[in-house]
């Protein structure tokens, strides 16, 4: 499932489009804003940015937004920057394409510069979407910003961290990883957290997520998919890992050191 780290990998790959001119756009109307295929052709790509889990492709007059759900992947110039995603299909079927974008200046003119392939249609493509509601980005978190974002919240910390208006780009795997490193149990209510605990969570986000990004994404933590599935021993203190549903999402944690 793509999280903010996967979106950052894709954003970096999409930098190859900067300076090219969009020649054609095909969209699946079921998961795309109307008008995309009409207004974007002929526009040069000025820059690529990421806001949380959303990739924004800027042209002089419009912004194409790529919003990712539980499934979906990006293919740039015929190459998938991430070959496979955990909990998602790694098959490349053209019938699953939801957006195809061609550009001038690409190598291999028969290959779309950008394809978004999503078997379950859980993502979407937007035109000039307002993202002002998003919280602080995962790669910009510090203690002060996180403390402000958590102020007044009473739900479980795991649930709140997954709220994109609090921390944009944090998904299920990374949230569990951050809480594991910070020693905070996922079911703890936010209003019960101490200042040192909030600082520990912010530090885990700031330090561990860039490491996971360099390793390849959200599955590259200590609570990797294999360990989550097996529910073996905690790699820190050897206590048995536990699994539960919190706020509708699966949480895995160590009851030994996460309090």
Structure description:
The model has no long low-confidence stretch (mean pLDDT 94). Helix 1 (4-14) packs across helix 6 (195-215), helix 3 packs across helix 6 and helix 5 crosses helix 6 (195-215). The chain has helices spanning 4-14, 36-39, 143-150, 157-161, 172-182, 195-215, 225-230; strands spanning 21-27, 47-51, 54-58, 63-67, 73-76, 97-104, 114-117, 124-127, 136-137, 167-168, 242-246, 249-253. It has two domains: 4-127, N-terminal domain of MutM-like DNA repair proteins; 136-253, Helicase, Ruva Protein, domain 3. The protein is built from seven helices and twelve strands. The radius of gyration is 19 Å and the shape is elongated. The strands form four sheets. A four-stranded antiparallel sheet has the order 1-6-7-5. Strands 2-3-4-8 form a four-stranded antiparallel sheet, covered by helices on one side. The protein has a two-stranded parallel ribbon with strand order 9-10. It is α+β, with helices and mostly antiparallel strands and 259 residues long. Strand 2 (47-51) and strand 3 (54-58) form a beta hairpin.
Supply the key terms.
about 260 residues, four-stranded antiparallel β-sheet, N-terminal domain of MutM-like DNA repair proteins, alpha+beta, Helicase, Ruva Protein, domain 3, about 20% strand
């Amino acid at each position: 499932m793509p999280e903010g780290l996967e979106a950052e990998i894709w954003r970096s790959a999409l930098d190859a489009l900067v300076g090219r001119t969009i020649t054609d756009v095909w969209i699946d109307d079921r998961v795309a804003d109307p008008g995309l295929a009409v207004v974007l052709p002929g526009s040069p790509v000025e820059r690529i940015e990421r806001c949380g889990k959303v990739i924004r492709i800027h042209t002089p007059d419009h912004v194409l937004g790529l919003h990712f759900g539980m499934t979906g992947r990006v293919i740039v110039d015929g190459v998938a920057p991430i070959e496979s995603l955990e909990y998602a299909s790694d098959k490349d079927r053209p019938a699953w394409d939801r957006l195809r974008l061609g550009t001038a200046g690409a190598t291999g003119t028969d290959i779309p510069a950008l394809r978004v392939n999503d078997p379950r249609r859980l993502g979407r493509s937007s035109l000039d979407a307002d993202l002002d509601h998003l919280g602080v980005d995962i790669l910009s978190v510090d203690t002060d910003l996180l403390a402000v974002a958590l102020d007044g919240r009473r739900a479980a910390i795991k649930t709140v961290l997954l709220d994109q208006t609090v921390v944009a780009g944090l998904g299920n795997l990374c949230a569990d990883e951050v809480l594991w490193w910070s020693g905070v149990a996922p079911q703890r209510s936010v209003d019960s957290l101490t200042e040192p605990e909030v600082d520990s969570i912010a530090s885990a986000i700031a330090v561990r997520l860039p490491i996971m990004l360099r390793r390849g994404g959200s599955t590259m933590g200590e609570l990797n998919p294999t360990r989550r599935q097996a529910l073996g021993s905690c790699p820190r203190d050897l206590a048995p890992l536990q699994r539960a549903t919190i706020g509708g999402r699966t949480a895995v944690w160590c009851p030994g050191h996460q309090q």
